[in-house]
Amino acid sequence: MLTKFYLYNTLSKTVEEFIPHDEKEVRMYTCGPTVYHFAHIGNLRSYIMEDVLEKALNFNGYHVNRVMNITDVGHLSSDADTGEDKMLKGAKREHKSVMEIAKFYTHSFFADCEKLNIAIPKTVEPATNCIDDFIKVVSALIEKGYAYISGENVYFDTSKVKNYYSLTGHSSDDLKIGVRDDVDEDTNKRNKADFVLWFTKSKFEDQQLKWNSPWGVGYPGWHIECSCISMKHLGEYLDIHCGGVDNIFPHHTNEIAQSEAYLGHPWCRYWFHVQHLNDKAGKMSKSKGDFLTVSLLEKKGYNPLVYRLFCLQSHYRKPLEFSYDALDNVASQYSRLKSRISALNREGAVDETVIDSYRLDFMKALADDLNTSMAVTKIYDVLKADITDAEKYRLIEEFEKVLSLGLLDEETSDVDEELESYINEKIAERLEAKKNRDYATADAIRNELAEKGIILKDTKDGTTWEKA
Ligand code: AMP
Ligand code: ZN
C-alpha cells in the first residue's frame, strides 16, 4: 500500500480510515442508472467521482472488484413506491416498449461514460436479469418475519429492524410518504416507512414487464434489486456502496434494512455519497425534462473531459453549481495544461527515487477523503518541479491512471480522414443518383448518413455536410 486511505463514511458521519474486509479485494457497489432517459451531467458527476474513487484505490495498491446494476424495472416516480414506474413513463413518452428504451438508454449511458473516461465496471447487471434472485430473497424475508403480504403486494416491515434510520439520522416523525403531494398514502402498509419488495396489485394495470412469483404476477421494488445484485456478485460483506446523496433515503436506508435482515449480520461498512450538481434552478433532475447532457455540451463545442476536470476541481461532498461561464474557464485552463504537457520532451532516463515522493504526494491528496482538486494541483507542482521533462511526463502518465483527463491524448480533428472520404463518396453517389432521377436512392443515402449523425445540406454551390 502506498498510504493509509481516509474516506468520509455516511454511516458513521466521520472521516474514517478505509480498511476493506479482505485486503486482497475491495468489493464496491454502484447504483447504476435508471434507463428511462439520457443521463444528465449531474448523474455523471456521481459516476465520475465513483470512477476516481475506484481508480485511486487501485493506484494505492488495492484490487477493486466493482459491480453496477442497471435499473430497468421497479423504480417508481417517487422513490417511496408511489407514482408510475419510470421505465413505463419513458416508454409511453417515446411510444416504444420498455425493453427498447432500456436498451437505447443503457447504450447511451455507456457512450457518455466512454466520452468522460469513466471505466465501466466489469460486472453490470440489469435488474430484469435477476428476478429469481429477488424472489429468493423476498421469500426468505417473509419466512424470517421481516416481510408481510398486504393488498397482495409484499412489504418490508421496518418496525422489525433496530436502527432503520442509522444512515440518515432521520427520525420516523420526519418521514414523508413520497415526495409528490398528489399521491395518497398506501393504506396496505403497517408502518409509514415500510416499503414494497414485490408489487402485484398496485400500479399494475399497464405495467409492461411482469413475472410469476409465489405472491402472484408482478414485479420487484427498486430497493431489493440493488441488495440482491450486490450480494449475488460480491457476497455477504460489501466494503463500499456508492451513489448520489438523493439515494441515502429511502433507497440505501432500505437496502441496509433488507440486506442485514436477510444476512443476519452487518453488510456494508462504508457509504460513499456524492453531492448534487445543481444549476440555477436547483438540483438537476431527469424528471424535470429539460436537462444537460454530454451530447449537448459536445454540440456547444466542449470536450467532455473539460466537464470531468470541472467536477474534479471541486470536492465530491460539496454541492456544485454548473454554469457555462465556469465551464469556459475550465476549458481554457484545460487547453493550457495540455499544451504545457505536450511541450515536454519525453525522451530520457527517469530516476525512480526522484519521482517517488511526487507519486506519494499525489496519492496522499486522494487518500485525504478523495481530495481531487488537490490531486489536480499536484500536476502543476510536477510541471514546476526541478526534475527532468521525462520524469514530469512519467508522473503525469501515472496520475492520469486515476484522473483520466486525457491530458496525454494527441489533439485529433473532430472528424477523422476515413470518415471524411466516406462521406464525400456518398455525396458523389447521391449526386449521380439525382442526375439519373433515382430519388429513392438519393434519399436512402441521405437517411443512411443522418443515422450516422451526418446531416447533408444542398446549397446552390453543391452539397455540404455537418455533424448533427
Ligand atoms: P438515476 O438514474 O436517477 O437512478 O440516478 C443515477 C445516479 O445519479 C444516482 O447515483 C443518483 O444519486 C445520482 N444523481 C441524481 N441526480 C444527481 C445530481 N443532480 N447530481 C449528482 N448526482 C445525481
Ligand atoms: Zn441502488
Summed up, what is this model?
The chain is of the alpha/beta class. The chain has 14 helices and 18 strands. Mean pLDDT is 91; it is low at 176-183.
Tell me what you see in this structure.
This protein folds into three domains: 6-274, Rossmann fold, CATH 3.40.50.620; 288-403, no CATH class; 417-467, no CATH class. It contains 14 helices and 18 strands. The chain has helices at 41-59, 86-94, 98-115, 131-143, 222-234, 248-263, 294-299, 304-312, 324-342, 352-367, 372-384, 389-403, 417-435, 439-451, and strands at residues 6-9, 14-17, 26-30, 64-70, 76-78, 82-85, 123-126, 147-150, 153-156, 195-199, 219-220, 238-244, 268-274, 277-279, 282-283, 320-321, 454-459, 462-467. A five-stranded parallel beta sheet has the order 7-4-3-12-13, with helices on both faces. Strands 8-9-10-11 form a four-stranded antiparallel beta sheet. The protein has a three-stranded mixed beta sheet with strand order 15-14-16, with helices on one face. A hairpin with a 2-residue loop joins strand 14 and strand 15 (282-283). Helix 2 (86-94) packs across helix 3, helix 8 (304-312) packs across helix 9 and helix 11 (372-384) packs antiparallel against helix 12 (389-403). It starts with 5 loop residues before the first strand and ends with a strand. Mean pLDDT is 91; it is low at 176-183. The structure holds adenosine monophosphate and zinc ion.
